[in-house]
Design goal:
alpha/beta, Rossmann fold, 7-stranded mixed sheet, 901 residues, 37 strands, 8-stranded mixed sheet
């Protein structure tokens, strides 16, 4: 069987062997057999157990080695000590994937971890992919695959679940059956010894049966692959994420459950925001999100209209919307006029739309239809309480009828029980989410609108990037290497500030002094007033130990400050190593706001940036926004806006507004530090003084740690930053110069202009269609490159004083992460100069360095110039693929690419 995706043997197996199948009714192997038979699996089902000849009417074999042919999927439910040997047998017998149901591995301690390493070694020896161990199993209802020990089966549908908790899977399955919700896949990860979220999300992204994805997460093992896969999935499908372990007690439980590291919750939140997915925090919210997705509720925005026959429930819904920062829609005048004609004179005349207690079905239909038709409304919640004049079922039918003329989200809350059961059934049969109270309905709409907002962030195309001076990386690295060479992990205040200056961050430069006499000389050199601060690698918060004296105006003041600081520090922290003091100019910024910028190192996602209120109250206010670098201007502004400190940055109590550009630049330069200096474990800039004239770092502290010289560039980061190392200059034989560099989101404008400038023939040869220009979604897709899974090199002509794109070559990694597909186009004026060949050679080198093994492409038969170049570069032609089409399929083995080039 030819599998298009390397995980197809797991998700679409033609044959399944249950190893450990048994007739004992209380055994997992018996439940597995029963579930597979009850689901009416469409492939070949086999049993493996030497104690039986038949299990539930299925022939049983003594071992997998005695099967007549290799199986796609082995499902293992044998004692833990036997599993490594079983995996070895499966590998030798040619099995292609396995689900290990058995528990008793790394979650139990060192002995179990050793067993897990053994089974994983056997699997990798034979290229066999594993799900588990210690998992519920896997379902693909569309083919009748129920390789789980859950109670009962699931309906086929378009919703996929990937969960580290089998219990969460069973809870969702139990909810789904009476709710008429179906699934494309149900995947229990268990211990994730081999397959983890990243690869499974990638499969579901390409899976045509899956239209929506739910994730339940306790810990992440491979942050880079997870973030990259989630970003790719969320571009095309709604993804809802729930993470357990948001608080310390929960984190400990999650570690003991899965053995996976769990990072700080706000860092995880920052990562999810960068992917375009939506996060929920409770099982109730997860179920609500699942219901929204399965009901095909699609986001339009976040402005909600509430229609109700009771004022109280309308207020409850409005309060919940306010809690979630959802704006209530402002109804247009035409909508208000329509409602006034259809409703009693004493209706609420606004949103929420109160139909009054005696509302009948006709009123509900008129009000909901009017709100759905309003351009200022993004979704409608209809609420009903059973009253004497109310017919809940008839009202439900009237609301359902309104959906025929609208694609906006429509939700219902039919409150009560006995009198509204029939009405709820009407909504369920129509696929409209219905709830018992208004609050969870508002929660669902909030999740839907969060998806809308996060998608806008994911598809953001910022304005062209301003030129920034290159950082002095050589000096920065020497500062860090010097400290590590002296076995120091904390840089001195002077070193910390010099590091900042390497990235053009303004600082109050300190001068070191080891004695009071030297401190006086430093003060005279700087000019009064000055500040004197303790200089010690052991002291982080100088003010806490009396280590700071400010606004010193003369020589006697410096001497007194020196003695006071030394005495205070000796009392507060007698064991601290004291190297002296630092003397620096006293920053007299009357209108300055004290802010904080930091870098922390998360055990899962690596470096993260923090921003918020600074000064001595930093820990009291706990005003912290977290961002996952690399950041651009748009993300920096979002980070600033999310803090309480942002409210103080405009005109405030007679103070002029701060220089926001200067503040944003500091954050962008700290982001560059994160990317380029993997040695940094912590950085505190506190306070960062910002006023109308600019920004300056008054104090800084940097903690570093050794970093492997053999690590790949940016390996320390969860999101691959812009690869500056790939920027180069190139000159044609005629002397024309271009810059070759990776594309970035800020290139949206020149990319669009480039495509517009192409001739109709060139557009057809590149896109195989008559596209005139790129849509906003295509433009974002082409410029927002995830450098982990694709690369786009553009050629830019700067001879006119502005950037003009004249060519682009890109590859996209295939689902196997071993091969890629390329595309290239060069503007008419630059063809025949060797630019296309140079771009392809660079692209081939990058793909090879990335570890890819094969590059493929599709070239129209009419594109003779491109076919000739491909042949010259060593590509081979495969005429057996779709020979009836006017398309040539070409292939290059990258290991041989250097010889061909």
């Amino acid at each position: 069987m030819n599998h298009a995706h390397y995980l197809s043997p797991l998700f679409e197996p033609a044959s399944v062997a249950i190893i450990g199948a048994t007739e004992r009714p209380d055994a997992v192997g018996a439940v597995l057999m029963q579930n597979m038979l009850a689901a009416k699996y469409s492939g070949s089902l086999l049993a493996v157990n030497p104690k039986y000849r038949w299990v539930r009417g299925v022939k049983s074999y003594p071992s997998i080695a005695e099967l007549r042919y290799p199986v796609d999927l082995a499902v293992i439910a044998t004692p833990p000590e036997t599993v490594p040997g079983v995996i070895e047998e499966c590998g030798r017998a040619g099995a292609r994937s396995a689900v290990v149901i058995t528990s008793g591995f790394s979650e139990t301690g060192p002995a179990g971890a050793q067993l897990e390493r053994a089974l994983l070694a056997s699997a990798r020896r034979y290229g066999l992919r594993l799900l588990g161990p210690n998992c519920l199993g896997l379902m693909r209802p569309g083919i009748g695959l129920n390789a789980t020990f859950a109670h009962g089966n699931a309906k086929p549908g378009s919703l996929a679940i990937v969960s580290q908790s089998g219990a969460v899977c069973t809870a969702l399955l139990d909810w789904a059956r009476p709710s008429n919700v179906g699934f494309s896949s149900v995947v229990s990860l268990g211990g994730s010894a081999d397959l983890d979220f990243g690869e499974l999300i990638d499969y579901l992204t390409y899976d045509p049966k899956t239209q929506q994805i739910l994730l339940y997460i306790e810990g992440i093992r491979n942050a880079r692959r997870f973030v990259s896969s989630l970003r790719a999935a969320a571009r095309t499908k709604p993804v809802i994420v729930m993470k357990a372990g948001r608080h310390p007690t929960g984190v400990r439980a999650a570690v003991s459950h899965t053995g996976a590291l769990v990072g700080a919750d706000d860092v995880f939140e920052a990562a999810i925001r960068r992917t375009g997915a939506v996060r929920v925090t409770t099982i109730v919210e997860l179920v609500a999100a699942a219901q929204a997705l399965s009901s095909r509720v699609r986001p339009r925005g976040d402005r909600l209209a509430i229609v109700t026959n009771g004022g109280g429930p309308g207020v409850l819904a409005a309060d919940r919307a306010a809690d979630l920062r959802l704006p209530l829609a402002e109804l247009s005048q035409s909508t208000l006029d329509s409602l006034s004609q259809a409703l009693p004179a004493n209706w609420s005349l606004g949103n929420p739309v109160d139909l009054i207690g005696d509302a009948d079905a006709k009123r509900y239909g008129a009000a909901v239809a009017a709100c759905l038709a309003d351009d200022g409304v993004d979704g409608v919640l209809a609420v009903l309480t059973p009253q004497a004049m109310t017919a809940p079922a008839e009202a439900a039918h009237a609301v359902v009828a309104c959906r025929k003329n609208s694609t906006k989200p429509l939700l219902a809350a039919w409150m009560g029980e006995e009198q509204v059961i029939e009405g709820r059934s009407v909504f369920q049969q129509a696929g409209i989410p219905v709830f018992r109270t208004p609050e969870p309905a508002v929660d669902m709409f909030a999740h839907v609108s969060s998806y809308y907002r996060n998608q806008r962030m994911l598809m953001q195309t910022p304005q062209p990037l301003e030129e920034q001076p290159d950082p002095d990386l050589e000096t920065a690295r020497k500062i860090i290497e010097t400290a590590l060479g002296e076995n120091r992990t904390v840089l001195t205040p002077s070193e910390s500030k010099r590091l900042l200056t390497c990235f053009q961050i303004p600082v109050a430069q300190p001068l070191q002094a080891k004695t009071e006499e030297e401190a006086v000389r430093r003060a005279l050199a700087l000019g009064y007033p000055v500040a004197v601060k303790i200089d010690s690698p052991d002291i982080t918060h100088k003010t806490d130990v009396g280590g700071v004296q400010l606004n010193i105006t003369d020589e006697q003041g410096v001497i007194a400050a020196y003695r006071t600081i030394m005495a205070s520090v000796q009392r507060a922290q007698p064991s601290a190593v004291i190297t002296g003091v630092t003397v620096e100019p006293m920053l007299m910024h009357k209108n300055a706001r004290e802010l904080f910028i930091g870098i922390l190192h998360d055990p899962v996602f690596g470096p993260a940036m923090t921003f918020g209120s600074g000064g001595i109250e930093i820990e009291v206010y706990a005003d912290r926004a977290v961002g996952l670098p690399p950041l651009n201007s748009f993300l920096v502004r979002e980070m600033i806006r999310s803090t309480r400190a942002s409210k103080l940055l405009g005109e405030f109590r007679g103070m002029p507004p701060v220089d926001m550009k200067a503040l944003e630049n500091v954050l962008l330069r700290v982001s560059a530090m994160v990317c380029e200096l993997p040695w940094i474990r912590e950085l505190d800039v506190n306070p960062l003084l910002v006023d109308h004239a600019g920004a300056v770092a008054a104090d800084a502290r940097v903690v570093v740690a050794p970093h492997s010289a053999e690590a790949q560039p940016y390996e320390h980061m969860a999101i691959h930053p812009y690869p500056n190392r790939l920027v180069s200059e190139w000159q044609t034989e005629r002397g024309a110069e271009v810059t070759i560099r990776p594309i970035c989101p800020e290139d949206a404008e020149i990319e669009q202009a480039f495509v517009r400038s192409l001739s109709p023939e060139a557009k057809y040869l590149r896109f195989m269609s008559t596209v005139k220009e790129l849509s906003p979604a295509m433009l974002a897709r082409f410029t927002q490159v995830d450098y982990d899974r694709e690369m786009a090199l553009i050629a830019v002509d700067r001879s006119t004083g502005r950037e003009i794109q004249v060519g682009v070559a890109r590859y996209v990694v295939n689902p196997d992460w071993q091969s890629c597909e390329f595309a290239i186009v060069v503007s008419q004026d630059w063809q025949g100069h060797g630019l296309g060949r140079h771009l392809m050679l660079r692209l081939i080198d990058i793909a090879r360095a990335r570890g890819l093994k094969v590059m493929t492409g599709q070239i129209l038969a009419a594109n003779g110039r491109m076919l000739a170049m491909a042949k010259a570069l060593g590509f081979t032609f495969d005429d057996s693929v779709e020979p009836e089409l006017d398309v040539k399929h070409v292939r290059l083995t990258l290991a041989k690419a250097a010889q061909a080039a």
